[in-house]
Design goal:
- There is one protein chain.
- This protein is about 50% helix and about 10% strand.
- The protein contains 10 helices and 3 strands; from the N terminus they run H-H-H-H-H-H-H-H-H-H-E-E-E.
- Strand 1 and strand 2 form a beta hairpin.
- Helix 1 runs parallel beside helix 2.
- The radius of gyration is 42 Å and the shape is elongated.
- It binds 2-acetamido-2-deoxy-beta-D-glucopyranose (2 copies).
- The site of one 2-acetamido-2-deoxy-beta-D-glucopyranose has 6 residues, from helix 5.
- It comes from Mytilus edulis (Blue mussel).
């Protein structure tokens, strides 16, 4: 008789030990320990069943060849998918299926009366241009177009400085150069010359006064270009002279 049988006998049970080692163990366990072992066994069994089910079925991630997975491609793909509404049946309403997500992702608010794919692109581009114009100047020499552009942008958008300067640039720098203003008593009618004043405003300040110039195709000969002067009413409305 082996060691296990001897111990089994000493437990004084009349059950036939099928697996002597196991029975010897079980007989020495408490009820809670027994329950734990059964639970662990069942959980392991369920895991094994799941693993078998998933490995024999279709793989969940299909890695196809020749599919672009760069950040830009993934971004575009997610944008397109995000603008779809896949819960709509494409055979019933293809437009809603393909574009239904767009209205959901682009709610209108009290300040916006319309949003389109193009208007979104427009505003995104504006944002990009703003970032470029606000970035530090790389080529800062005297003739640098980059520096001029960024300086000009900064001068228009620095509202704190504009607020502090108030009318100073106009009153002290521009008015004296164009012959003064009768309201301030700085205008002298005997010395003021309209031609000179217009020249200054158009050429030095790049501002249209009374009329504006433009280069256009000659109406009589389309191979020629002519300089046209138009009455300047406002930016959107011009009357040709
Ligand atoms: C998709 O369409 C259904 C049915 O028209 C609608 O109830 C749901 O809100 C839409 N979901 C999105 C995300 O647009
Ligand atoms: C206007 O200019 C003339 C010519 O220079 C001068 O004689 C006259 O005193 C000036 N008038 C005023 C009010 O400054």
């Amino acid at each position: 008789m082996t060691e296990e049988y001897k111990q089994f006998d000493s437990a004084k049970t009349d059950k036939i030990p099928i697996v002597p080692g196991l029975v010897k163990h079980i007989s020495g366990l408490k009820f809670t320990e027994l329950i734990s072992i059964i639970v662990i066994f069942v959980v392991s069994l369920v895991c094994v069943v799941f693993v078998i089910l998933f490995t024999t079925g279709k793989p969940t991630v299909v890695v196809e060849e020749n599919v672009c997975v760069t950040a830009a491609c993934l971004k575009s793909a997610s944008y397109v998918v995000g603008n779809m509404n896949k819960s709509v049946d494409p055979c019933k309403n293809f437009y809603k299926y393909a574009c239904g997500g767009f209205t959901n992702n682009n709610r209108l608010d009290s300040e916006t009366y319309s949003k389109t794919v193009y208007s979104k692109l427009y505003y995104e581009n504006e944002e990009k241009l703003k970032n470029i114009l606000e970035s530090p100047v790389v080529n800062g020499n005297d003739h640098s177009a980059e520096r001029k552009l960024k300086d000009m942008f900064a001068s228009c958008t620095n509202s704190y400085l504009k607020e502090r300067a108030k009318g100073y640039p106009f009153l002290k720098k521009i008015l004296p150069n164009t012959g003064g203003w009768y309201v301030l008593g700085t205008w002298n009618s005997s010395t003021w010359n309209m031609q000179n004043a217009l020249e200054k405003v158009h050429m030095d300040y790049w501002t249209n006064a009374l009329f504006r110039f433009r280069v256009a195709t000659d109406w009589n000969d389309w191979k020629k270009r002519v300089i046209e002067a138009c009455i300047h009413v406002n930016v959107y409305q011009d009357f040709d002279l």
